[in-house]
Design brief:
The protein has 308 residues and is an alpha/beta fold. Helices cover 37% and strands 14% of the residues. It folds into two domains: 166 residues, DNA primase DNAg catalytic core, N-terminal domain (Alpha-Beta Complex); 117 residues, Dna Topoisomerase Vi A Subunit, Chain: A, domain 2 (3-Layer(aba) Sandwich). A five-stranded mixed β-sheet has the order 4-6-5-7-8, sandwiched between helices. It has a three-stranded antiparallel β-sheet with strand order 1-2-3. Helix 8 packs across helix 12. 36% of the residues are buried.
């Protein structure tokens, strides 16, 4: 690339250098305003027909998923676009839907074909969402706010065989990691509010477990962590007389998570807590709560684990 070409490239991409996060306190306030607005906008929305069909195909009751805060964002995308477009680049980054450097959270993009460095990201409106970006959003909570500070966007049509590719996170810097944590809006009991507790990982596993237990146990969903088990999750186990933790094998992942859980429980709840209160269950690679729910086997398995 010649000097002239380099100069032209820098001029053409100067807008990208404006996309820098503001100071953390300011960013948190902006993010909170945007996510509160979005939660208020989504609240009255019924599930779209596409969302209902997708849930029913997986044996999940649409009414339950809706009650737990799951929504298809398509009806509010134009309003979200109109809310985000006037923001300055730093405010856009603070919103959580743009990243430093100007790239846009992939599902919200109106054009998924162009990868050019000079192409500005285009927010999608209600009628502009690319078909392969359609999906169901599951709220992620941090317990400190009455609205979800983060979301999981579960694609209707998988783009790869990797679960991570098909369920994209949109989270704050503080990384909320809980599904179903009690807040004023989540509609779920706190993990310690029931003597029996089920802990699973991921949005579809969580929805499946909530449906299977039908209120006979509290259900806490977690997001996969590089630390395997977070100390912040352990206090939610404390008041459970019996807790069942169900995790996928994933080439040794479950074993490492259970080891991390044991260390954390020993530190915070006492060395004998896991032996007295905890039941572990590992799913083989091809199984999980979703698969067992569809086969009619999940309720029986959970009952058995909680009675152990």
């Amino acid at each position: 690339m010649s000097i002239v070409d380099i100069d032209a490239f820098h001029r053409a991409t100067a807008w990208k250098r404006e996309y820098r996060a503001p100071p953390e306190e300011e960013a948190r306030a902006i993010r909170s305003l945007i996510t509160a607005w979005l939660w208020d906008a989504l609240g009255p929305e019924p599930l779209t027909e596409r969302a209902r069909e997708w849930l029913e195909a997986r044996g999940l009751r649409p009414e339950l998923a809706h009650a737990l805060g799951c929504r298809d964002w398509r009806p509010v995308l134009t309003r979200l676009k109109e809310t985000l477009e006037p923001l300055s680049p730093p405010e856009r980054v603070a919103s959580g839907f743009f990243f430093e450097g100007g790239s846009l959270w992939w599902p919200l993009g109106g054009d998924h074909g162009c990868r050019s460095e000079v192409c500005r990201p285009k927010l999608a409106g209600t009628d502009e969402l690319h078909p392969r970006a359609a999906g169901l959003c599951v709220p992620v909570w941090d317990g400190a706010l009455p609205h979800p500070p983060g979301w999981l966007w579960q694609l209707y049509e998988p783009i790869s065989t990797s679960a991570a590719d098909n369920c994209m996170r949109n989270l704050t810097r503080e990384q909320p990691t809980l599904l179903g944590l009690q807040t004023s809006s989540s509609g779920l009991p706190a993990a310690g509010a029931h003597p029996r507790l089920v802990v699973v990982e991921g949005p579809l596993e969580w929805l499946s477990a909530v449906q299977a237990v039908e209120g006979r146990a509290a259900v806490m969903g977690t997001l996969r962590s590089s630390s395997f088990w977070l100390d912040a999750w352990t206090p939610f186990l404390e008041d459970a007389e019996r807790a069942a933790v169900l995790l996928p094998e994933r080439q040794g992942y479950a074993g490492k998570a259970f080891e991390a859980l044991e260390r954390s429980a020993a530190l915070h709840l006492g060395p004998g807590w896991t032996r007295a209160h905890l039941t572990r269950h590992t799913f083989p690679e091809e199984d999980g709560c979703q698969a067992l729910l569809r086969r009619g086997e999940l309720t029986g398995l959970i009952d058995e684990l909680l009675a152990t």
